[in-house]
Structure formats: C-alpha cells, structure tokens
Predict the 3D structure of the following.
Amino acid sequence: MNDFKILSIDAATKTMVVDWGFVTLNHDIPLYILENPDLPKEVMLANIGYMRPPAPIDLEVPPALMELVEPVVKPLEETTE
C-alpha cells in the first residue's frame, strides 16, 4: 500500500501531480514507467515512491529571508468623478 496519492496526470507534458501527505508537487512521470507501459501497477507505484521528497524539518524562517520578499504593489483604485 502506498502512502501518497496521484491527483492528476497530464499526458501531453508527461507530468503528474502527487500529494505526498505533507506537500503536493508536480513531477515528471518516471521514464522507466513511460518506456515500460505494461508494468504492474505495484511496480509503477514503487517507482513513483522513490520520488518522495524529504520530510519537512520544523525550523524557523530566518528574519533576513523574510526581508527579501518583494512587497505586493496594489494598483491604485480608479476614481469615478
């Protein structure tokens, strides 16, 4: 049993959206799966499982990094006269 979900597949771009439980990411479909379309589902799931990103670590975001965020500039509201 796998502990992730494939949410969508884009056949044109050969990508898929995978929900890993702690993050949802867009991934390329593994070439091994594309080159071997008759693989059993269990083997496909195992190959996708190797793409799992590392689990997040609970660390604080440095204040200096927060200062690098570009402010969102809101357009001036049009006035009606």
About this structure: The two ends are 65 Å apart (CA to CA). The longest strand covers residues 5-10.
